Amino acid sequence: MRKNIKLRATQISTLLRSRYPLPVTMLDWKNPWELLVATVLAAQCTDARVNLVTPEFFRRWPGPVELSTARLSDVEEVVHSTGFFRQKAKNLIASAKRIIAVYDGQVPDTMNDLLTLPGVARKTANIVLSNALGRHEGVAVDTHVRRLAFRLGLTTSTNPTIIERDLMQLFPRDQWGDINHLLVLHGRDTCPARNPRCPSCILTDLCPKHGLS
What we know:
By secondary structure, this protein is mainly alpha-helical. 57% of the residues lie in helices and 0% in strands.
């Protein structure tokens, strides 16, 4: 049974790559620090909204040195429209201070070290590692990945930790970063939570449509 799921996972990946040949994050960033900040801000917020906020953010605080001495109220004002702005601002300043104090001003490049930064969980760490640092230590599981992995029968769980483990077993390590992007792109384009466009979906013959009536 597991062999059949792995074969289907390979077919799904092949079809999605044909549909989305450039699987990259929609967040705007130039270096690991900018991607870390943007990904933290993207929690419970659209990438498009984050991309409207980050230019001003990085103009005022281009790196952890500048942010480490920022006033909390100033950061809250800039990130207000991304939602949960108080916690995000607090975590970003605290992360900047830790990066300065512990990591010599550089965004850490391992999962364990990234997870010590306030507000950074495995999803954010995986995105930074795979996209900015070329290291694949896991699969970032956001709302799109969680929904599609279950709907496509790639997992029987709705728990992000279990979903990540299942996806890591189904796809080669060098594809872990791309799998996140492919599922996110397809979730936005064709398979939203409500009213998925199954008749026009390139995966319809492979999809068991779990969770759909």
